[in-house]
Design a protein that fits this description.
With about 90 residues, the chain is an all-alpha fold. It is about 50% helix and about 0% strand. The chain has three helices and no strands.
Length: about 90
Amino acid sequence: MAKEQSDRTTIDLFATEKRRGRPRSNPLTRSQQLKVNKRNQVLRDKAKGLKRIELKVPQDLFDALNQLAEENNISRSQLIETMLTAQLSDLN
């Protein structure tokens, strides 16, 4: 019988090493946790009807966006979404 890394029910069934100290709060490795979290984030975004857009910008523009977002107490993503929406409404 093979051990499945993502199996949370019988994770200690094949435990071969005993460790000192506090037991792990999550049986998955950090890389596996990141994969699970990313998959869950993608599913949440999909359920909300969100689509992903990627773009590359120069460092000075990136810093300016971060500063403006911080001044307005919103995320950079929210700031860019607001700017794009305003630009599209100006075109119409």
